[in-house]
Amino acid sequence: xxxxxxxPYRTGDEIAKFFRQCGYNMGRLSFSRVLWTEEILSxxxxxxxxxxxxxxxxxxxxxxxxLNNKKLxxxxxxxxxxxxxxxxxxxxxxxxxxxxCVREKDKSSPIIKEATKKLALDVPTVRKDFERALxxxxxxxxxxxxxxxxxIESVCKTILDEMAEPYPKDQDISHLIDAxxxxxxxxxxxxxxxxxxxxxxxxxxxxxxxxxxxxKLGTAHGRGKSHxxxxxxxxxxSIGAASTAAIFLxxxxxxxxxxxGKEKPSKKDIVKQYWKEVLDEYSGxxxxxxxxxxxxxxxxxxRSYVDYEKDEAYYIVECKxxxxxxxxx
Length: 329
Prior knowledge:
Blueprint: H1 12-21, H2 33-48, H3 50-60, H4 70-84, E1 89-94, E2 99-104, H5 110-118, H6 124-136, H7 141-162, H8 173-183, H9 194-217, H10 232-260, H11 267-278, E3 301-307, E4 312-318, E5 325-328
Antiparallel strand pairs: 1-2, 3-4, 4-5
Helix pairs in contact: 2-3, 5-10, 6-7, 7-8, 7-9, 7-10, 8-9, 9-10
């Protein structure tokens, strides 16, 4: 392999073998390698169009041929994407199949495009599930269903982690969404407005529906002989629903965090803070007042005297500004 270029060098026989591995038996190379390869690619393109071209590219990027040259593989993907861009295609990595595949660019629905921006957060598990769902929606719809459900599960667990809350005993999507809905006050029961109650009730049902689809049609479980293939449009719908749910949960959680500092403190917290400001808990003084608890004056007079007859010591602190005083013995 040429170390200065990501393109692998192949002899004439190796080029012919490569095409056979792609399913094209074109015989032996009979003239210039470059001209012969261009002629074969032209024939495949004329006969099969983009499907044939994608087959060639995906075979070229077979990860088994690049185990020790991942850096060159990435360079090759970048180089190919520069050209595919002008035809509306791109090479992406399918996390489920663990290999590269070619797909049409910007085929996602508007909500999925919006989710791509919203979910570009620094949470590896959420980002990985979302990218896996997008990458397999056309090539492996069943896997996309599974990833859509995993996306919501990852978002729920991330929110519970951030809130320092334990996961439910059963960590399926139904129990996870119930736990998060309760913590974020998104239960329909907690709202009076009937329209809001309907929307929140529908939200939970949609999320649980995504989980049910994963169970029945996804790749999380085995399949019986009556299993029907999943249409990519259903997978795309599930990803759109999961993305909308994920955005809603994350935005609700972020808004809740912003309001935490603005919440009205409890009476207990107010009293605790009051005495923290008034008393010096680390002072050895019998009357460790830092300020007058009545008017807030910081200048306090302190005195003490000893009753020798009773052998007792008395300590007094007073504020001359408002007349407040306190004593102990």
